Amino acid sequence: MGMKTLALAALTALLAAAPAQSPPAATVHIKDFAFVPARLTVDAGAVVRFVNDDGEAHTVTAVDKSFDSEGLDTDAQWTHRFAKPGTYAYFCELHPYMKGTIVVRPSPQS
Amino acid sequence: MRRGDFLSHVAWTGAGIAYALSARGIVRAAGGTPSGAYFVQISDSHIGFKQPANPDVAGTLTQTIARINALANQPQFVVHTGDVTHLSKPEQFDLAKQLLGTLRAPVVVLPGEHDALAGGAARFLSIFPPKSGSSGWFSWDAGGIHYVALVNVFDFEQMGLLGNDQLAWLERDLTPLPKSQPVVVFAHVPLYALYPQWGWTTEDGAKALALLARFDAVTVLNGHIHQVIEHTQGNIRFATANATAYPQPAPGSAPKPGPLALPPDALLARIGYRTVEMKAGHATTDDVSLA
């Protein structure tokens, strides 16, 4: 493997790892068949962590399908980086009456 | 085992015909098969579930299948009324398909909402293709019964919901049938408002029931709620089935639904399979636990 390829591989790895390394700006708990808090406001680029504290499986699924945790079992967690400002409605595919909203503000730097 | 049954068992084995006793030791009279349609329903296997309510759901499904395979009277088919997997993961579908493939009788598999995660119906439909059509719902005729498999878990935002396409199909499917035609309907989520507070209902189920109301004898068999609850509405008889995985609380008996953790023996008494025997269009159900 040439030096250039190696550097590119390292850079790719770094970029891929970057979102996971950003600490979550906020956490939404899933408890008693509800998202807590049901409405959360974060800055653009923030990572939000969703933790399933219930004995039942749930999902965190965007109504506009822009994100989907897929099935989250008991104690499972999932993080998502909200890059673009906007209001994101989401729900649990297994229990569609469970609803939440993430409001993403333009980032202070931009 | 009843004494008469035991004697008939001895008589048959004496004649060199080997067959196993069922879980309850029920052995039918010579001939071996009930006169009418006869099938088995299983439901809610949740392959991939690992919580304390049942740390070995593959094991309890395997036990259930072994009991069904040991029935002296093999069912004409086994229907699984959904939630085959817990989280729609490829390895969960693979294991479920492998286990269900060990049934001696032909298998009909319907999806539950747990089988339609991570992008919807496509994965389920590719692994368990419908008997006909490509939507997931279908019907067939066997032994004088018209069977209908409905899907009320494929809508993205609502559950249970049949949707207008399926309702239009159902109307076309039922229209040619005489009112004396016995009809058996399968679907994952109960078609009537069993307990809407926990989502145990199909929002447009009443439209399907209106299409079924003119028949003399209709049986609707569902899963989803992991317990047996029977209900009658006109000529329509409803029965939800036990899971093969774990029970859920009775409607309103707990703050929320969800897996009910019980001691191991108590668990086995609350999971299992159901035999369904059709006599003159009416279903006789027998819920058999693994205990």
What does this structure look like?
- The complex is a heterodimer of chains A (110) and B (291).
- Chain A has one helix and eight strands.
- Chain A is α/β, with parallel strands linked by helices and 110 residues long.
- Chain A has one domain (24-105): Cupredoxins -  blue copper proteins (Immunoglobulin-like), CATH 2.60.40.
- In chain A, the strands form two sheets. Chain A has a four-stranded mixed beta sheet, with no helix packed on it.
- Chain B is an alpha/beta fold and 291 residues long.
- Chain B folds into two domains: 1-32, no CATH class; 33-289, Metallo-dependent phosphatases (Purple Acid Phosphatase, chain A, domain 2).
- Helix content of chain B is 23%, strand content 19%.
- Chain B has seven helices and eleven strands.
- In chain B, the strands form two sheets. Chain B has a six-stranded mixed beta sheet, with no helix packed on it. In chain B, strands 3-2-1-10-11 form a five-stranded mixed beta sheet.
- In chain B, helix 2 runs parallel beside helix 3 and helix 5 runs parallel beside helix 6 (205-212).
- The longest helix of chain B is centred in the first third of the chain and has 13 residues, at 57-69.
- The model of chain B is unreliable at 1-34 (pLDDT under 50).
- At the A-B interface, loops of A face loops of B.
